[in-house]
């Protein structure tokens, strides 16, 4: 099923438009990414490359946008990026092979810098990005930031938290990942947000 979903993602230039085949594929992948036995297939099917590419492109757009998250087009970028971040977080949790691939394989290794760029954009930007139903906002993150299940808005703090959790996976017992973070000056000002480390064994997070 993963190769077929990979084909659906490749059919569209941008995965962020609601009700598209690519959006359906991303939602399906987020569910499948919880399955330990499928995590290696994300790498073999080229999905890691795709997801890392989307995150890198969207981070570049967000970093270059005047006003950062305050830019009117920021919501479109965040809608595209967040589902990919959630999937990357799950498939790299307790999967050293996927984490190693991402930090050692060009251009996937650029995802570390992309995450640091997103942190830099979000740091100090105490604002919310308007979202639409199903746009990569999980109830888990909404509840961790505010005591609600609503996904109408996604705060900069939640975006930072997800980025940090992916970075934790990419630097845990990963000397190359650690070196990439250390070499980027943005790491020094990444903010004080701490990732939610209360995770279940399948890569999810406890409420």
Task: Give descriptors for this structure.
207 residues, mainly alpha, 3% strand
Topology, element by element:
Layout: H1 2-10, H2 21-32, H3 39-44, H4 47-64, H5 74-92, H6 96-104, H7 110-122, E1 128-130, H8 139-145, E2 153-155, H9 156-171, H10 175-183
Helix pairs in contact: 1-2, 2-5, 4-5, 4-7, 5-9, 7-9, 8-9
The helix/strand series, from N terminus to C terminus, equals: HHHHHHHEHEHH
Judged by helices, strands and strand pairing, the structural class is mainly alpha
Strand order within the widest beta sheet: 1-2
Low-confidence segments: 15-19, 134-150, 186-191
E-strand count = 2
Estimated share of beta-strand residues: under 5%
Give the integer mean of the pLDDT values: 79
- How far is the first residue's CA from the last residue's CA? 29 Å
Please state the overall shape, judged from the principal axes of the Cα atoms.
globular
């Amino acid at each position: 099923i993963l190769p077929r979903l990979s084909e659906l993602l490749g059919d569209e230039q941008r995965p962020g438009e609601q009700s598209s085949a690519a959006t359906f594929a991303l939602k399906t992948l987020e569910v499948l990414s919880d399955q330990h036995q499928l995590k290696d297939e994300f790498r073999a099917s080229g999905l890691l490359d795709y997801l890392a590419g989307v995150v890198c492109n969207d981070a570049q757009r967000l970093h270059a946008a005047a006003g950062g998250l305050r830019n009117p087009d920021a919501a479109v970028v965040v809608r595209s990026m967040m589902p990919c971040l959630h999937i990357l977080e799950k498939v790299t949790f307790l999967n050293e092979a996927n984490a190693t691939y991402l930090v050692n394989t060009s251009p996937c290794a650029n995802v570390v810098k992309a995450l640091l760029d997103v942190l830099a954009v979000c740091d100090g930007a105490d604002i919310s990005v308007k979202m639409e139903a199903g746009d990569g906002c999980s109830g888990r993150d909404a509840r961790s930031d505010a005591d609600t299940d609503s996904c109408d808005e996604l705060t900069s703090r939640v975006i930072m938290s997800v980025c940090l959790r992916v970075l934790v996976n990419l630097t845990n017992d990963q000397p190359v990942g650690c070196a990439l973070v250390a070499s980027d000056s943005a790491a020094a000002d990444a903010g004080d947000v701490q990732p939610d480390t209360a995770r279940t064994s399948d890569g999810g997070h406890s409420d």
